[in-house]
Amino acid sequence: MDAAIFRVLERGQFILGGEVEAFEKEFSAYCGTRHGVGVASGTEALYLSLLAAGVKPGDEVITAPNTAVPTASAITMAGAKPVFADVLEEDFNINPEKIAAAATKKTKAIIPVHLYGQTADMKPVLEVAERLGLSVVEDACQAHGAEYERKKAGSFGDFGCFSFYPSKNLGAYGDAGFVATSDPAQHEKLLMLRNYGQKKRYYHEIKGVNGRLDEIQAAILRVKLKHLDEWNAKRIRIAGIYAKNLCDAVTLPATIPGRKHVYHIYAARTRNNAERDALKKFLEERGVQTLIHYPIPIHLQEAYADLRRSEGDYPVAEGCARTELSLPIYPELSDEQTESVWNKVNEFF
Asked: Which of 114, 150, 157, 323 has the fewest Cβ atoms surrounding its Cβ within 10 A?
């Protein structure tokens, strides 16, 4: 890693140099797309993809209400309105059967979120998008290396968006992001959008922003990409230990045939909200840190009160928010630590 960083320092080119170009080729090849564009963050990846898809102020974009707020942030950055479709109990992801009912004449795109490291059910999502004439922007920010019918997340839609926030399965040493695409025209457009709309320096063909991936982050990601499959395999192994040993009172993340879950988050569920909160307190008192992903669905967040949605509008997503608890999972977690976690969970029940 030090050698990769010092290589950039010695060259003295810190913006859009050889490291970014090389990483774009390597990660797009990993995802199974023909092209890729390094950008400043996962939020930027979603935002620039929406711009490239032609989303404009006043348009609507459908996504899941239980995702992280940055998904909706990207929609509002593009001047569009987030519209939600409820999710499925089994995988926390958008329910394809709810998408058509959420669509209007203003709808321009769908953002299926591959939440927690498992892909959404992409075949029916793509069928609905084609029928309605909508662009598909995959939010794969938690799904590096996840698969659906043996294809990598990020390779199904018009755009596949990734975050390399440090805690991701593939993380940089700061903010970084990526857009995967197989459309050469969209690839060229994204290259301009992330760099003030210019193809040649100081000659601006379209309006763009500063959304570039730094050379140092690209160099770091090139090193870490070589280990991604190994790290994902360790996460999958830890998830298997949890599944084998956690008591029946805990609802485990579903293992769905035809999909490869890479467990960015191990999202367990309790039977009710009070039980979840008590379990969280119990574990923290015994040295086990847990998190809630996410405690308030987007439609109930104060920042999105202008959407005029109410509690009960998306009951499955709201139920997930009340009962989800993320147990520790990362490649360095030892068998002894994993055993300590599941033992303490079982002790609570």
From this structure: 150
From the number of C-beta atoms within 10 Å of its C-beta (0-12, 13-18, 19+), residue 61 rates as buried
pLDDT at site 12: 95
SS3 46: helix
The sheet with strand 177-181 has its strands ordered as 35-39, 177-181, 159-163, 135-139, 107-111, 60-63, 81-84
253: helix, strand or coil: coil
What structural domains and CATH numbers belong to the chain?
A: 2-86+93-225 (3.40.640.10), 228-348 (3.90.1150.10)
63 within 8 A of 71, measured Cβ to Cβ = yes
CB atoms within 10 A of CB 135: 20
Q: How many residues does the chain have?
A: 349
For 346, counting Cβ atoms within 10 Å of its Cβ (0-12 exposed, 13-18 middle, 19+ buried), the class is middle
HSE of 57 in the Cβ direction (CA atoms, 13 Å)? 1
Q: Residue 205, Cβ neighbours under 10 Å: how many?
A: 12
Pair type for strands 159-163 and 198-200: unpaired
pLDDT at residue 34, rounded to an integer: 98
CB 264 within 8 A of CB 169: yes
Degrees, nearest 5: CA angle 79-84-89: 150
CA 11/CA 6 separation, integer angstroms? 8
Cα–Cα separations (whole angstroms), residue 103 to 34, 52, 60, 97, 202: 30, 20, 8, 12, 40
Residue 192's pLDDT is 98
pTM for this model (two decimals) = 0.97
Cis ω before 314 (30° cut-off from 0): no
Q: What are the residue ranges in the chain where pLDDT is below 70?
A: none
Task: Name 138's bridge partners.
Answer: 160
* pLDDT value of position 246: 98
